[in-house]
Amino acid sequence: MNLDLRGSFSWPSVFAVLFFAIPLLLFYSYPSSFWANTDYQPLGLADALNLAYRIADRQMYFAKGMTDHPGVPFYFMSWLALALTGYPVASEGPGFLDTVIAHVETYYWITVWLGALVGSTGVYILTRTARNLVPTEVVAIGLLIWLVSTPATLLVFLHPSIDTFAIAINGLFFAILVRLAYDRDISPSVTTLSACVGAFAYLNKLSYIYIPLALAVAGIANLAFRKAGWVRGSLLSALFVFSFLLVIVATGFLIIRWDGFDELLRFHKTVIRGSGLYGTGDQVVVDSAAIWRAVAGIWADRTYAVVIALVGGIGLVVGGLATGLKRPQHVPVAVIGIGTGVASILSAIFVMKHYLQHYTAGVSATLPASAVGCYLVAKSWSYNFRIARTALAATAILLMADQARRRLIPALAASTNTSQLAKTDLQEIPAYVAGSKGTVEFAYRTPFAWYGEGFVVVFASVPRLTDDYLQTRVGTISSMTAGLVNRDIGAYVIDKGYFPTVESIKAAPNVALLGPKLVAFNEGDKLIELRTVFLLIPRLIVRKSEAD
Q1: How many other CB atoms are found less than 10 A from the CB of residue 84?
Q2: Sheet holding 476-478: strands in order across?
Q3: Tens of pLDDT along 253-290?
Q4: Is residue 119 a contact partner of residue 19, using CB atoms and an 8 Å limit?
Q5: Sign of the CA dihedral with 413 first, then 415, 416, and 417 last
Q6: What is the DSSP string of 78-92?
Q7: CA contacts within 13 A on the Cβ side of 362
Q8: Is 0.85 surpassed by the pTM of this model?
């Protein structure tokens, strides 16, 4: 009986199913509210509503949600979740928003299932590609390193976001990289397909530009090692660039909309030229202070993926170059080593330039392919992986897993706790503000629909949806939409996540984050502390913004 599973579909399927179960088990073990998580939850709903209204009205509405990252795959996944919830197309009259909001928790768990499916698809593609190149245990080690090298790996599946697509994109990258490496004829079709994968990565998020760059470098290395000649090399390089730009421009015109695409390009220009979050810091490409903050953040957040990607990526590039130059019979291995190494290095560099913990999910996703590349390069030099070294890798994985668990579980428990406490606050807020005159404004990021609805409406960018919202939300308003209508504000609801104490509120120059006016505490104002928020009831009319 043949028990070798490397030649069958078994191991790719097993790994995919195992991964699919992990985020779902965590999600149902630590349930949380749609409104008590990250900005990506209302952003995804906004994307879904934008497409639902585009289909219903047959009109290409502006899509603000795709003018930053742009998150095109996330846009369609969010709409698919809304469709599976039962609302693929917006209704003609008012009330569609209320209907969707009433079923938003169903929509939320569907996004988690879809995110898990996206992740398991990426695992399947990567494992199936690697199965004929390396032993199954090498792929298993790479996948385990991906899972435990940063808490963000699993968090982006529990709170679906743009980075949920990281492993799927890297799976596609590795599949086309292997095909490119073994393409002795260096065919135009493989070049074109590489460009399309690179464009798909960029259209997910700017930082995923490391995918097309790595494919470009690997393609050039393949041309050089196989001595394709300058003319053929130049033509194939031009084809790669043309195909890459064609897909992006076509997507900008047909999906994002041209004015939104122009805004997207200007945003990316700002991010590249500036430091800090979204390029809003010093206008330098690399800020040393930001790098040191990233180093401190890596240690504090236990995001070891960044260090592994940098160090391992450099080793892969050096090993790949040496293999290609000294061992011409192993050119495919050299190309794979260089491609995976460049992807790991660039992913880490881009995250260190604008460091946040959840960004590291895009770095950890490069590590399974890098593990395969490392094994192939080492084997090409007749380096044997003994039991002791495998045990060392297992020990490192266990240590990282423990550190990731120490960060992941408290974060999930905190989301669950916030959701439960917010339910109680939600019942008490109306009684506290009953005597105040005017509208109650919910500031960024209070864990209630009253704030999140405004976020959804602004990023959905559909005029009749906005009108529906403003007409039906009479006694409440989100800070995101407070500037769209003239209302007297009688109370502010302030998130404790940003202002945890009374002292922090009294010292802050503005507590109504993302609102149209600066709101500060003044003597005589009434401040009420609840479990997840503060209520600020001004004694006098809130002073106008300095901009006014």
Answers
A1: 15
A2: 476-478, 439-442, 489-495, 533-537, 526-529
A3: 999 999 999 999 999 998 888 766 666 666 666 778 88
A4: yes
A5: positive
A6: HHHHHHHHT-SS--S
A7: 28
A8: yes
